[in-house]
Amino acid sequence: MAEEKSIESLVAARDLLRTSLDKSRALGLELDETSLRxxxxxxxxxxxxxxxxxxxxxxxxxxxxxxxxxxxxxxADAVLKVFESVRELENSLLASPCSNxxxxxxxxxxxxxxxxxxxxxxxxxxxxxxxxxxxxxxNGMTNERYVLNLKSSLSILQDLQSSEMKSRHDGGALxxxxxxxxCEFKQLLTENSAPSAxxxxxxxxxxxxxxxxxxxxxxxxxxxxxxxxxxxxxxxxLESCIDAYVDVRTLNARAxxxxxxxxxxxxxxxPFDDEQIIESDLERxxxxxxxxxxxxxxHERRLCMQVFxxxxxxxxTRCFAMIASRSGVAAFLQFGNKFTESKKSPDKLLNLLKVxxxxxxxxxxxxxxxxxKACAEIQTLTRDLIRNVVHGAWEIFWELSFQVELQRxxxxxxxxSIPLLVSFVTEYCNQLxxxxxxxxxxxxxxxxxxxxxxxxxxGLFTNQIYNIVKExxxxxxxxxxxxxxxxxxxxxxxxNHHHFCNLKGTKLGDMMGExxxxxxxxxxxxxxxxxxxxxxxxxxxxxxxxxxxxxxxxEPIDRDLLKKRLKAFNxxxxxxxEKQYNWIIPDEDLREKMCQxxxxxxxxxxGSYIKKYRTSITPDDSAYRYIKHSVQNxxxxxxxxxxPKHRKLxxxxxxxxxxxxxxxxxxxxxxxxxxxxxx
Length: 679
Known about the structure:
The chain is mostly helical.
C-alpha cells in the first residue's frame, strides 16, 4: 500500500511539471512578440521627440525674453515720469533766485534729487534691455527690426542716464542755477559790505580790547548767505563762493587799512642813518599793527565764523587765512623784520625791544587769529620775526661790555669833561633798567636761554649791567693816565666821579647801591682837592708869603720885590687861566662850587696883596701898570671858567667835527659799534 501511494505521488508531480513547462513556453513566445512591439513604439517616440524639441526651446526663450522685458518696462516707465518732472523743475529755475530764494533753493534740491533718481532708473532699465538683446542674439533671432528698436531704446536710456552730468556742465540747468546762486551770493555780499568804520584810530589803538564793529550783514542777509552756502556745499560747488567771499572781504579789509597810509611798509629799506625817521616808522608800525590785528582782522575773523558757521571750522579758517594774507598782514611782519637788518647799535637794541613788546602784547591776539592750520604761512613769518628780534637783541646786549672796552683805545676828551661814552652808557643803562625796557629784556633773555636749552638764572640781566659799568671804570682809569697834564687828569676824574654821584635815585644808582655811590662821592672830593692844590694852590706862592708874613708890616717895603712878585703872579695866572679856559665842568652845581672855591682861595689873597702894593706907590707911579687885573676883574674871570662849549668828536675818518651838546647822544650811538660793524 505504501509503495502504491508513493508511485501515485511521483506521477502527479511529473504531470504538474509538464504542465508548468508548457505554460512557460507559451509565455516566452508572447514576451518575444511584446518586445518587438515595444521596440517599434520606442523608435516612434524618438522621432516625435526630435520633432517637438525646437518648438519647446523657442517657447522657453520667449518666456525668458518676456521676463526681461517686463523687468525693463517698470524702470523705463519711472524714467518717463521723472523726466517730465525734471523738465518742469528746469523751467522753474529760469527765474531769478532773488525773488524767492528759499523756493529757488528748494527747486534746486528737488532737481538734483530728480536727476539722481533718473540716472539710477535709467541704469536699471539699461541693464535689463542689454540682457534682452544678448538673449536674442545668443538664440539666433533674426528679426532685425525688433533688435534695432531695442537698441534704439537702449541708446535713448543711456543718453538720459547722463542727464545729471550734462546738467552740471556749463550751459546745463544745474550749472546755470549754481551760477545764479553765486551771483546772488556776491550781490548780497556787495550790498551788505562796507569798509569797517571806527570812531578813530587813536581811540581804538589805546584800548587793549578789540574795537570790533557790528556785523555788516542783516539777519535776513546772513540767513540767505548761509542757505546758499549750505546748498552749494551739498552740491560740491562751494569753491566759487569762497573765492567771491574772500575777494569782497579782502577789498573791505584793505579799504579799512587804506586810511592809515601804509605806503611806508612797501619801502625796500629803512633810512638807518636817520634815527628820528626810524623811531617815527617804528611808532607808526606799532600803532598800525595793533589796529590791524585787534580791529580789522578780528572783525574779519568773526564774520568768517558767522557766515561759514554751518560748514565747519576748516572752511571758515581757510577763508580768513586768505583774507588776512591778501589784506597785507605779511607786509606788517616783513616790515618788522627790517628793524633786525640794520647795523648793530644801542639804538637798534631799544628798537628791537619795542618790536618785541608790540609782538608780545599781541601774542594772544595772534594765537586766536592765526593759530589755525590754515594760517601756517603767517605763523612761519611770525616765528621768523620773533626769532630775529630775540637773537638780535640778545646779541647786542651781550656785546655791550665788550664794545665799551673797545672804546678804551680812544683818547679822553681834551677838555677834561665827561666822555661821551660815559654819559651815553650810563643813560642807556638807566633806560634798560627802567620799567619800559627791563621786563622786556629779561623776557628776551629767558627765551634765548630756553632756545639753548638753558635755564634763565636770576641776576643774569643785572650782572651784565655790572660788567658794563665795570668796563666804564676801567676806561676812566686808562684815560686819566693818558693826560700829560696831571691837573687836567684830576679835573677829569672829579667830573666823572661826580657824574656817578648824580646817579643817586636813578635805576642804575639803585642797582649799584649806596656804598658804590658813597665811594664815588669820596673820590670826587679827593680829586677836587688834588686839582685845587696842584693848580691854583701853586699859583699863590709868589704873593701869599707877602700877605701872610706877620713881620712884613714892620719891615720896609721893597717895591721892586712887590713888582717882581706881582709880575710872577700875573704870568702864572694868565698861563693857568689860558690853559684852563677851555676845560669844562659839565655839572652846573659842581662848576659853581669849584669856581667859588677858586675865588675864595685866590681873590682874598690877591686883594690883600694889591692893597699892600698900592700903598707902596704913588698915583702917578708907572708901577701901576703891573696891576694887570683888578680884584673884581679877577673874580669875574675865575667865575667864567669851565663853561660848556661845543664838543668836538672825531668821525670815522679821524676828522674833528663840532657837535652841539644835544647831538652828542646820536653821534655816540652811531660810533659805539663802529669797530664791530667794520669787522
